[in-house]
Amino acid sequence: MTEEEIARRSADAMWARDDASKWLGANLDFVGPGTASVSMTVEKHHTNGHDICHGGFIFTLADSAFAFACNSYNQIAVAQHNTISFIAPGALGDRLTADAREISRTGRSGLYDVRVTNQDGRLIAEFRGASRVIKGVHFEDAATGG
Questions:
Q1: Has this prediction a pTM greater than 0.70?
Q2: What are the residue boundaries of the Thioesterase domain, all occurrences included (predicted)?
């Protein structure tokens, strides 16, 4: 099985159980080894008292992309800690895309950066996540015993 196939099968297994991302209205647009792209359209129920996208929803979108990227090796990975910097507001109707990429993966620890942009390419937020691999796999693979 190729690295891309492992990433896709891992993502498919996670997506089947990811009620939070589905509830958000997110789409898993792309996944590959150490990378993922997740998008959503800002709806009225995503807006806050300033009539812009609530930061918690932007964080959730970025966190979902991070999760798919760090879980792309058929190993269960969870977040150790995450930070986000909000650069510009997301407006009602904006299509936000969170693009995650692996910075480092050593032993059980990983580091990932996620850029959240709107449909015009405007930077909305920068997110950094640290992951930790724990026991378990997303799918059984006879070739690797996992």
A1: yes
A2: 52-124
